[in-house]
Amino acid sequence: MAERSSGWVQNSGPTGVMDVEETRLAVAALVMPGSTNFKAKSGFRPGPGASPGLVTATGTPDGFVHVAPFQLLLQSGRATAPGTYETALDAIKDINILSTPADPTNPRDDLIVAQQSDTFYADANSDFLVRHVVGTPAGVPVDPTVTGSPDFITLARVRVNATATTITSGNITDLRTGGHANSLTGGLHSVALGGILPVTSAAQRDALVGVYEGLTIDRADLDYAERHNGSVWRPFVSGQRTAPGGAFPLNTHGGGLSYTHPGMYGIFTIVEAVRQLRHDYADAPERQVGGARIGLAHGTGGVLSATGTLILTRD
Question: What HEC string does 200-266 produce?
């Protein structure tokens, strides 16, 4: 089946030297932090293809919805330091919403959730499931209670109108990043510690709880990166940060587009690094990196099939 259980679930009770919480914590240490140093940020792994975990109606509306494949890092909330689950849905999953027929009088709200159970915490099994939680028809319907493990994220709400025979896109509300107590906070994704985290708005950025000095995010709404300096967010290249006089001088010769690009460009990055380290531009302070002692030249070629990096220093 499409769901695959986490590699660190407990199948028969705590045994051996290392229990499942400890092994999950070892993985969590490699991931962007969440609300504490012992917790990771829950989120989907960024990657190509359909938006991970997105719930959509079928092309020709019927009683089913599709759930897009994903890899999900799911932080457990059951203990002080319970660690994280690495879960996956490796193919589109079709869920028959109308397997429970619509009420003849009132609408209902159903939920689609991604839930991890664990016998380590006395659950009946250690399955990871993307499942359908059926609501109760009412004049003003509310979300149903999700039974079983509390370790889940809510993917979508599906409104089943009275007498409905199909589910359309207008019946589906995306809850992955908001609208439910178990929605993801701080955006859709999670990344490795030190990675660049994609977010889509200032609101998602400001909802992050595991912020640390040096954390860098990709603002999709602004098309640039921001870095946290320990107090506030700053655009990564603001204030001439990558200019010769900035904190991170980059492409001081202007880069390939302005410095010439004959197709074999790498030698020019080396030439520029040597010139900077020899202080050849001392009479042109707008070009010279003051006190330059270390230079890094990097090139990619062969249709992205080969790369080379050279580090040069000045004694």
Answer: CCHHHHHCCCCCCCCCEEEECCCCEEEEECCCCEEECCHHHCCCCCCCCCCCCCCCHHHHCCCCCCH
- State how far the Cα of 155 lies from the Cα of 111, in Å rounded to an integer: 8
pLDDT given for residue 261 in this prediction: 72
Range(s) of the domain holding residue 222: 196-236
pLDDT at position 18, please? 55
Structure tokens at 94: 């079709």
Query: What is this structure's pTM?
Result: 0.75
Beta-carbon contacts of 60 under 8 Å, excluding residues fewer than 6 positions away, are none
pLDDT tens digits along 59-68 = 999 999 999 9
207, 255: one domain: no
pLDDT tens digit sequence for 119-137: 989 999 999 999 999 999 9
CA distance linking residue 311 with residue 69, whole number of Å: 41
* 269 plus 206 within the same structural domain: no
Mean pLDDT, the chain, rounded, equals: 89
Instruction: Round to whole Å and give the CA distance between 157 and 132.
Output: 10
What pairing do the DSSP bridges indicate for beta strands 216-219 and 196-199?
parallel
Q: Which residues, 6 or more positions from 143, have their beta carbon under 8 angstroms from its beta carbon?
A: 109, 111, 135, 157, 180
Decide which of 174, 208, 224 is a domain's last residue.
174
